[in-house]
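Q: How would the C-alpha cells look for this protein?
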Amino acid sequence: MKKCYFALLLLFALSSYGQEVTNSNNPTAGEKSTFQLYPNPAVNDVVYITTTNNGKKDIIVYDVFGETVLTDRIASKTLNISRLVAGVYVLQVIENGETMTRKLVVR
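A: Here is the predicted structure in C-alpha cell form.
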C-alpha cells in the first residue's frame, strides 16, 4: 500500500514539475507597462485609468462569468463605476488599437 501512495506522489510531483511558469512582473504582449488603474480596490464611484497617450479609450467591464456589465468610451482619466455592485471584475481598455486588461475589485 505504501508503494502505491509513493508511486502516486511521485507521479503527481513529476506532472506538476512540467507546468509552464509565467512571470507576472512583465507585461504581456500588447500591454503597455504604463497602464495604471487606481484606486484598486475601488471604494468610491470613480476609478482613474491612465496610459501613456491618455487618449480616447473604449472600456469594457466583465463580471466573473464573462458577461459584459459595463461599456463606456472616455476621453478623460475617470471612469464612473457607480452601476457596479461589490465584486471582482475584469476591466479591458482599448486605446489606439491596443488592448490592456486588469482585474478590478469593487468594495
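Strands lie at 36-38, 46-50, 57-62, 68-74, 78-80, 87-95, 98-106.

The longest strand covers residues 87-95.

Upvote if useful.
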